Amino acid sequence: MNRLFGSKSAGPKPTLNSAISNTDTHVESLDVKLAKLNAELSTYQSRMSKMRDGPGKTALRSKALKILQRRKLLESQRDNLQQQSWNMEQASMMTDNLKNVMTTVDVMKDTNKTLRKQYGKVDIDKIERMQDEMQDLMEMGNEIQESLGRSYDVPEDVDEAELDAELEALGEEAEFESFAGAGGEREMPGFMVDEVPQFVDEPPEAGKVKEAAG
Q: Which residues fall within 8 angstroms of residue 209, CB to CB, at 6 or more apart?
């Protein structure tokens, strides 16, 4: 049997990519042959266009027809090989896509296992309790801030009329001080007449007080 069909090859099996490469190489060689035949046909056509009808032109026509038949045969072979190459490329793309899909599935499985393992360690109830504690602490902090920011000895209800009267009195007092500082004469206020402050050792003379008041 080995004499008829030969022994089994021990070399590596051809791959799809190598088959595509070999087919493309064959197609390129056919293109070279077709280009050569097209050049010969152009030459024969040019020569026949300049010849009169006769045995010479008939001979050239016969040669051109043979070359044309050969060209059609090579074109048919080239088209078949190109279709085979395209089919193999499609199969290669499908194979690559399938490999990518399987890789993606494996990665998703590993990720799913990891997520299950990690999330299994998380206690949702503990997180909820921690959130409640944080909220309570935030509210406590706000209450502390409000307590620290509270004003002391400031009445909540203040009469605006009283404030206006006090502001007007302060204005009059400032006006009096500016007038006195400018050297102007003005009537001595009643609380300064015939009264001596306790921090003065000796009372002023009556004449000087009257002069100051006059």
A: 193, 194
